[in-house]
Amino acid sequence: MSTATRVPGRAIGAPLDRIDGPQKVTGTAPYAYEHHVGYPLYLYPLQSDIVRGRVAQIDASAAEALPGVILVITHENAPRLADTSDKELAILQSDEVAFRGQYVGAVVAETFEIARHAAQIIKISYDEKAHDVALRADRDDLYTPDRVSGGFPTDTEEGDFDEAFSSAAVKLDETYATPMEHNNPMEPHTTVAVWEGGDLTLYESTQGPHRVKAKVAPIFGLDPSRVRVVAPYVGGGFGSKGLPHANTILAALAARKVEGRPVKFALTRQQMFSCVGYRTPTIQRIRLGADEDGRLTAISHEVVEQTAKIKEFAEQTAIATRMMYATGSRRTTHRLAALDVPVPSWMRAPGECPGMYALEAAMDEMAIKCNLDPVEFRIRNEPEIDALTGLPYSSRNLVACLREGARRFGWEDRDPIPCVWREGRWLVGTGVASATYPVGRQPGSRVRIRCEGDGRYAVEIGAADIGTGTWTALTQISADALDVGVEVIDLKIGDTNVPFASVAGNSSGITSWGSTIFEAARAFREQHGQDPSEGDEVEAGMPENPETDNYAMHAFGAYFVEARVDADTGEVRIPRMTGVFAVGNIINPKTARSQFIGGMTMGLGMALHEESLVDPRFGHVVNHDFAEYHIPTNADVGEMDIVWIEEEDPYVNPMGSKGIGEIGIVGSSAAIANAVYHASGIRVRDLPITPDKLVQ
Amino acid sequence: MKPYHYQRARDIPGAVAALAEQPNGKYLAGGTNLVDLMKLEIMTPDMLVDVRRLTSDRIEETEDGGVRIGAAVTNSDLAADRTIRSCYPVLSQALVSGASGQLRNLATTGGNLLQRTRCVYFYDTTTPCNKREPGSGCSAIDGHNKDHAILGASERCVATHPSDMAVAMTALEAFVNVHGPDGERRIPIEELHRPPGDEPERDTTLEHGELITAVDLPPLAFASNSKYRKVRERASYAFALVSVAAALDVEDGTVRDVRLALGGVAHKPWRATKAEEALRGEQANEANFRAAADIELEDAEPLRDNAFKVPLARNIITRALLELSEER
Ligand SMILES: Cc1cc2nc3c(=O)[nH]c(=O)nc-3n(C[C@H](O)[C@H](O)[C@H](O)COP(=O)(O)OP(=O)(O)OC[C@H]3O[C@@H](n4cnc5c(N)ncnc54)[C@H](O)[C@@H]3O)c2cc1C
Ligand code: SF4
C-alpha cells in the first residue's frame, strides 16, 4: 500500500464523543499545575518595569525576611546555563534588560500568595537606556530578513509587476493594518519543574512535549535522556505553547536552586501579555491591477511588521498571496523593524491569518472597482496550478466552497450597493471572503504499537492534545489503521516517555501523527499478523509522502457573513456566519466542528475586538487583562452554519485529511470587515473595527 | 497581596468603630473590585471589616412611596426586583448591562457605588497615576485614553467612573444613607462622587469610616418610562464607552419633565442638567432632543483617543429620548 492511498475506515468519520470528555467535565483530567508532586513550592516572577538598560540594584531584604520565602533568584545567584544562544530563553544570565516585562528574577515560596507578595516588595533599580517600541511603515531602519517563518523566501517576484500594475485598467492601492494580538488560551502557561539527582521532569502546558525536551536539555547541559516532559492535557495553546518560552526556563532554574522540592509556576492572566509570544502588528500595502474583465494582472503584497532585537521572528504574512489567485504578475515582500519588544511568535495561523485579512479585504474592494460580484470576482481569478511550486493541486475546491456557501447563505439577490439595507436602527450588510491553509506535515514522528493481550492494543506517540480532540481522533485513526474497534485502543500521548511526536502546530498533527500510526500499524500487521501475542511490538517512523513532489496541497474554504451596524453607535453585531470548507476527510465531525467554530469565533474577535495596546513610553501592553483586552463573549457569537464539502484527496495522507485547526481563522475577519463595509459604507482598514471607528 | 487583618463586626456601629481606629482599613462587601485591587497591590489595606452581612439586603417601599435598597442587596437581586423593574426600569437595565452574571451575584449596592475607575494606568502599579499615587502624574492624559473623560476632568486626572448602576441612580436622584463615626447622614447621589480636581485620589465625598447602609429612590411617577442604553465594545461583559440613563414625561407632545445622566464620560455619573433644562416645555421631537444633547456636550473636551464619545453621547441621548417618547 502506498502511504498516500486512503484506507476506507469505520472509525474515521464517526462523530465519536471526546474520550477524555468525562474526565474533563468532572475535573479529573490533570492539567500541568494539577499534577501531584510532593511538597511543591510556588514561583512568582520578577519582571522588568523598564524597557531597556541594566539592573542596577536589587533589594530583596524585606522579601527574604518574610516567613515562607525560600529563595529569591536573580541574575546574581542564578545557575549559569550551558547554552545561551537563544536569547529569549537565556534568562537571569546577566543584568541586561532588553524589553519591558522580561524576567529579571523570581521568588520561590511555600505558597503562591507569599511568593506574590514578596515579589511585590522587592525593590529593583535600573540604569535605563532610551528605547524604541513603535512600529511604523516609514521607519528608515526596516530590514529584510533572510527568510520568513516556515523557511519561506522573504520576497518573491513573478513577472513584471511594476509594468503590469501601471498599465492595468482597474487599480487598487490600499494599506491594511492588524494590531498586536495576544494568544490567550484558557489555561495560562504553566510549568511544574522537578529535579531529581540531576534529572529534570517538567509537567508542562505545551503543544509539543518532545519539542520542550529538545530545547530545554541543552540549555541545562543535559543529555536529552535526562529530561522528561509530561503534558497529557493542555488547556489551549493557539501557537503560544508551540515553543517553550522563558517561563519554563525560569521554573527549571529556580527548581534547580531548591533541589529536592518541585517548583510550580502558572502565569497570571496579566503575565500572559509579556513573555509568551504574540502576533506581531502588521502594516500591509496591497496593490491589485486587473483588466476590463476583472482578471487580475498584477498583485503586490508588501508587509511591514516587527521583531525583537534579541531574537528574530519574521511572520510569513504574505505567503498565501503567493498562491491564492491567478495573476499575470506578482510581488510579495516582508520587512521587519527590530524593536525593544518581547519576541513575537505563532498565533493561530501565523502568516495566513493577518495576510489573508488584508488580501481578502482588498479583493472585496477590487471586486467593487471591477463591477463584479465578489464571489464571481474570486471565481474568475481561480488559478489552474499552484503558482508557488508550479505543481497542480492535489485537490482545490475553493470555487465549490464559494458556490455552496453562496447557496446556503442566500447570497444570490444581494444588492452590492452599500448602506441601503436598513432594518430600524440597524444598517445591514453581507460579506464574503476565502480561506486557505496548507496541508501541514512535519517530519520525525514515531509510533509504537504493542499488543496487550485480550485483543487490546497500546498505541504510543508523544503528541499533545491542546483541546482540539487529539485523544479521540488518534484513537479513531489507530482503530482503522489496525482494523479494530476504538474500544480496544489504549492511546498514550502527552509524554516524552513515549516516542517522538512533532509539535501540535501548523495544523499538521493529524497528517503527521496519523500517517505514522498507519505506517506502524502496517508494520505491526506485517510482523505479527492478525492474531498477535501479548507483548508483540513494533515501532515505526513517519513515512515520506512522495506525492508532495507531485502536488501542491492546501485546504480551502469560504465565509459568508451578515453584519449589523447600529447607525447611532457604530456597534457591530454578527447574527450569522456561514463557513464552507474543503478539507479532505473529516476524522471526527464533532471535534472538527468545534475547530471551525473556534477559528471563526477567533476571526470574529480579530475583526471586532482584539487589540493589545502598547504605550510607547512604557513599552508594555496596557490593557493586559480580560476586562480590557476583549475577546468575543457568547453574546457576540450568532448562528454558525458550518459545513464541509465532500472532498476525496488520495494524495495528502492515508486518512485523506487536510488539517483543520487553523483554517477557520484565515479570512474570517475579512469577511466580517467586508460585511461591515457593505452595511455601513465605511471601509475600516485597521482592525479591530470598534464603534469609535464607525460612529458619526 | 499584602497580608491584612480580617474582622467581622456585630453591628453597624461596631463596624464603624472598628474602621475608625484603622486609618488604612477598608470595608469589604462582595469583594469583586476590592480583592482584585488588593491582589495587584493597587490597594493595600491593613484591615478588612466585612460588612456584607451587616447592612440590610432587602428592598423595601418607603412611606413616601419610594424604595429603600439595603447596601448589601446584590446587583442580581436588585435587577430582578419587581418594583424596580416596573417603577424604575432604568435601574434594572443598568444593572443587567454590567459585569457578568457571576459578578452580579456577588456584587453589592454599596460596593458597586464605590468601585474604582478602570483606567488602565490606575490598574498597573508600574505606571504613574495621581489617583493611585498622588503627585506621580497622570499617564492617561498623553497615553491611551479612549475610555476616559470628556466632561469635568482636570489636568490631574481624566478617569471615568465605571458603574452603570450609579448612572441610573443619578438620573433617579437617589439618596445615599451613610453611617459614620459622627453619626448618620443622607447624601444626594450627585454629591457622593466628586470631580477629580486637585485630589483625584478621592473618588467620593465620604469620610474615612463612613459606611453606606442604604440607597433611597424617591418616588418618581414617570420613572416607569425610563431606560438605560449602554454602548460597549462587545455585546456583553464590557464597561461602557458611553451610556445614558433617561426618564421622560411627555404630555401632548410636550416634554413635561426629563431626567438624563451619562456614564463613561466623567469622573462621576454625569447628570445632564443643561440638556434637561433645554428640554422642559419643548416639543418632544428628534431635533429638540439632539439640540439638547449638543448643549450638554458643548463643554466636552475630548482627549487624543476619545473624540468619538461626543457624537456617540449625542446619538444615544437622542435615541433614548425618541424611544421613550414613542413608547408612551
Ligand atoms: C471583569 C469585571 C467586569 C465588570 N463590569 C462592570 C460593568 O460593566 N459595569 C459595572 O457597573 N460594573 C462592572 N464591574 C464592577 C462590579 O460592578 C463591581 O466590582 C461591584 O459592583 C463591586 O461591588 P462589591 O460588593 O463586590 O464591592 P467590593 O469590591 O467589596 O467593594 C468595593 C469598594 O466599596 C467599598 N464598600 C463596599 N461596601 C461598602 C459599604 N457598604 N459602605 C462603604 N464602603 C463600602 C469597599 O471598601 C471597596 O472600596 C465589573 C467587575 C469586573 C471584575
Ligand atoms: S486618568 Fe486618573 S486614574 Fe488614570 S492615570 Fe490619570 S490620574 Fe490615574
Describe the fold and architecture.
The complex is a heterodimer of chains A (696) and B (328). Chain A has 696 residues and is an alpha+beta fold. In chain A, 22% of the residues lie in helices and 25% in strands. Chain A has 13 helices and 28 strands. In chain A, strand 12, helix 5 and strand 13 (227-230) form a beta-alpha-beta unit. Mean pLDDT of chain A is 97; it is low at 1-7. In chain B, helix 10 packs antiparallel against helix 11 (309-327). Chain B is globular and about 60 Å long. The model of chain B has no long low-confidence stretch (mean pLDDT 97). Chain B has helices spanning 12-20, 34-39, 75-80, 82-87, 89-96, 101-106, 109-113, 165-171, 273-279, 286-297, 309-327, and strands at residues 5-8, 25-28, 47-50, 59-61, 67-70, 175-180, 183-188, 211-217, 226-231, 242-251, 254-263, 270-271. Chain B is 28% helix and 20% strand. Chain B contains eleven helices and twelve strands. Chains A and B meet through helix 3 of A and helix 11 of B. Iron/sulfur cluster binds next to loops of chain B. The site of flavin-adenine dinucleotide has 32 residues of chain B, from strand 2, helix 2, helix 6, helix 7 and strand 8.
Named at the architecture level, the CATH assignment of the domain at 384-440 and 552-696 in chain A is 2-Layer Sandwich
How far do the termini of chain A sit from each other? 64 Å
How is the largest sheet of chain B built, in terms of strand order? 4-5-8-6-7
Low-confidence residue ranges of chain A = 1-7
**What is the typical, i.e. mean, pLDDT of chain A?**
97
Largest sheet of chain B: 5 strands, antiparallel
- Structural category of chain A is alpha+beta
Radius of gyration of chain B: 19 Å
Give the largest chain-chain interface (CB within 8 Å): A-B, 37 and 37 residues
Quantity of strands of chain A, as a count: 28
Order of helices and strands of chain B: EHEHEEEHHHHHHEEEEEEEHHH
Described by its quaternary structure, the protein is heterodimer
Tell me the number of helical segments of chain B per DSSP (H or I, 4 or more residues long): 11
